[in-house]
Design a protein that fits this description.
The chain has seven helices and seven strands; from the N terminus they run H-H-E-H-E-E-H-E-H-E-E-E-H-H. The chain has 265 residues and is an alpha+beta fold. Among the domains are: 99 residues, Alpha-Beta Plaits (2-Layer Sandwich); 65 residues. The radius of gyration is 44 Å and the shape is rod-shaped. The N and C termini lie far apart (100 Å).
Length: 265
Amino acid sequence: MDDTVIYNTCDGEDDDDLQKRISKGISSFLSSDSAVSMFSTLIQTALTNAILPVTTEISRLSIDVEKIKSENNLLSKSLEKTQRELSEAKKYVDIVEQNSKKSSMIIFSSAFAEDGREDVCDLVTSYCRSTLQMSSALEIIDCYRIGKRSRDTASASVHRPLSRPILVIFTSPHTKMKVMDSARRAKTGLHHPPVFFSDDLTKVRRNIFSNARQLKKEKRIGDCWVRHGNIYVKSFDGKITMFDSEDAFTSFSINLPVGSDLVGS
């Protein structure tokens, strides 16, 4: 038997009394266990119907996110491998290029005046024989100026004429080193005008050496020099490190203290 209540109007009962009886009956029904159970079921069903699509979509998105994470990890590993291979390839190319320059050197000086008519090879040969006291044949394959010729004649003077560097290519690395060792003993960098003999470096190694000289200027290292195409750096503790890659030099330089710290220590 259900809990439905049928209200019949009694004789002599007015509308107010009927409304009171109806209100009392509704209150009694709402407070009953059946009403509570019915409303609870309705609410749970409504919530389930409302939440189910959301939870389903969240589950699908979670699966997609995990898939994307997995793909990103694979891409990151692939990118790291490619970067390592590229770095190794660049280093190999630099080594091959530097080996091709092992018999050549560059001379920087305004002592070899440039007028467009001079024989550059004769200038270098005469200097090596007179100033460096080298009597043996230099065995030069080629010799020429490098870089663009400056059109700014206004900055030239009698004492310091404009002059581009000279690239000298010898028949062997041994001949090149004899010239450079002779220049080092003669201290040509202190002559007037000074004459500097330098290894013919690749762009990578030129950058390393330029940065190393800047570190020396900032008093963060003791000294730096080039030998056989490699850059050497001497720390204040006497340790000498050889560099042939920018990555290794960058890792070294970022850990160096500043000049003020060195002085203070």
